[in-house]
Design a protein that fits this description.
The protein has one domain. Helix content is 69%, strand content 0%. The protein has 10 helices and no strands. Helix 2 packs antiparallel against helix 5 and helix 8 runs parallel beside helix 10. The protein starts with a helix and ends with a helix.
């Protein structure tokens, strides 16, 4: 389909190709996520109770909103790296498979909705942190819980991007460790800003690992560009 509709994309400049990848992702992943989230809020249904004592006893750390919103920087990086001339095929593969992985989560959101009842712990936040939480809560109703898309999508992006950097010979052990440390901070932030349950994170890690092992890694091992 891409070859039929966009036959000249190989001649595009890197910024244009990166913007095109971003547009595909916004149209086929971010926009549907918003629709599913609003539908879940309208239905106001929750078929599972996955809350544990740990979810409520974990501290609320307002400053962890910084690694939480760092999630949105993963995608411009992915699109820019994927638009390099020597890896455009893999850039398109990653974008399309990430969209498909997101739709697997959307089906779960619709069939097994879970309400995240933790936001009351953030009620007294003021100042800059409070403004950030107000913005997050305004655009994202407390549904679309499991698997956590923050964790699922970021895991798959980091695994592929680290592989790209290794293939290019541009990543050191120290930089690799920093990348994974930043990702671990993002994962922890989903619980420490009271957006997700431990169950949401655990299921995202499990599904992401299965997708990487059986669906992403084989194709990225076969192609180098």
């Amino acid at each position: 389909m891409l070859q039929r509709w966009f036959p000249q994309r190989g001649a595009w400049t890197r910024p244009v190709h990166a913007a095109w990848l971003g547009g595909l992702f916004l149209l086929l992943s971010a926009f549907p996520y918003t629709l599913v989230n609003r539908l879940a809020g309208w239905r106001d249904a929750s078929v599972l109770n996955v809350e544990t004592p740990l979810d409520t006893s974990l501290p609320f750390l307002p400053w962890m909103v910084v690694p939480y919103i760092s999630f949105y920087a993963y995608f411009p990086l992915m699109f820019w790296m994927g638009a390099a001339k020597h890896r455009r095929h893999q850039g398109e593969l990653l974008t399309l498979r990430l969209i498909q992985a997101s739709w697997v989560a959307f089906v779960i959101f619709l069939v097994f909705p879970v309400h995240v009842d933790l936001r009351h712990q953030t009620a007294d936040v003021e100042g800059l942190w409070g403004s950030l939480f107000d913005a997050i809560h305004a655009v994202d109703t407390p549904y679309n819980a499991w698997p956590s898309l923050h964790v699922l999508q970021s895991l798959l992006v980091v695994l592929v991007v680290v592989r790209w950097l290794e293939n290019d010979g541009t990543i050191s052990r120290r930089l690799c460790a920093l990348v994974w440390l930043a990702w671990i901070s993002l994962v922890l932030s989903t619980m420490l800003v009271k957006q997700h349950y431990l169950f949401d994170v655990a299921t995202a890690l499990a599904i992401g690992a299965l997708m990487w092992r059986g669906w992403f890694r084989p194709v990225f091992s076969q192609t180098t560009h």
